[in-house]
C-alpha cells in the first residue's frame, strides 16, 4: 500500500534534507532523505514535491510551480501583516 503526500523542504541538517509531509493541507509527518536523492532543481528551502511512500520505496517529484505559488502567498501574507499594527494604525510601528 502506498500513500501520496505533498512535501515541503523545511531545512537541511548536514547532508540530510528534512521534508514536511502534508495531506489535505495539514502536516502529518516528516521524511528524512539524503540531499543527493532530491531532484537537483528542488534542493532549496521551501521547494515543494509530490512524494509517494510505500513499504519498500519512496518516489519524489519536484513541483516547482507549487513552490512559486507558496512563495507568493507567503510574501503576500507577510506584506499584509506588515501594514497592520496591533491597534490597526501602521504609523505606530
Question: Can you describe this structure?
Answer:
The protein has 93 residues and is α+β, with helices and mostly antiparallel strands. The chain has a single domain (3-84), classed as OB fold (Dihydrolipoamide Acetyltransferase, E2P). The protein contains one helix and five strands; from the N terminus they run βββββα. It has one helix at 64-83; strands at residues 3-13, 16-23, 26-34, 48-53, 58-62. The chain has a five-stranded antiparallel beta sheet. It is globular, with a radius of gyration of 17 Å. The mean pLDDT is 82.
Give the CA-CA distance, first to last residue.
53 Å
Structural class: alpha+beta
Main pleated sheet:
5 strands, antiparallel
Into which percentage range does the β-strand content fall? Answer: 35-45%
Query: Biggest sheet: strands side by side, in what order?
Result: 3-2-1-4-5
Give the helix proportion (percent range).
10-25%
Summarize the helix and strand pattern as letters: EEEEEH
- Name the average pLDDT: 82
As for the CATH topology, it is OB fold (Dihydrolipoamide Acetyltransferase, E2P)
Overall 3D geometry?
A: globular
Low-confidence stretches: none
The count of DSSP E runs of length 2 or more, i.e. the number of strands, is 5
Query: How many H/I helices?
Result: 1
The CATH class, by name, is: Mainly Beta
Radius of gyration: 17 Å
The CATH architecture designation is Beta Barrel
Number of domains: 1
Biased composition (Basic and acidic residues): 62-82
Protein name: DUF3006 domain-containing protein
Organism: Haloarchaeobius litoreus
InterPro entries: DUF3006 (IPR021377)
Amino acid at each position: 500500500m502506498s500513500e501520496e503526500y505533498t512535501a515541503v523542504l523545511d531545512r537541511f541538517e548536514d547532508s540530510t534534507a528534512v521534508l514536511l509531509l502534508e495531506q489535505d493541507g495539514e502536516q502529518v509527518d516528516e521524511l528524512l532523505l539524503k540531499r543527493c536523492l532530491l531532484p537537483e532543481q528542488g534542493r532549496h528551502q521551501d521547494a515543494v514535491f509530490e512524494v509517494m511512500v510505500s513499504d519498500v520505496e519512496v518516489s519524489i517529484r519536484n513541483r516547482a510551480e507549487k513552490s512559486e505559488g507558496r512563495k507568493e502567498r507567503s510574501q503576500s501574507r507577510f506584506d499584509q501583516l506588515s501594514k497592520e499594527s496591533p491597534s490597526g494604525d501602521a504609523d505606530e510601528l
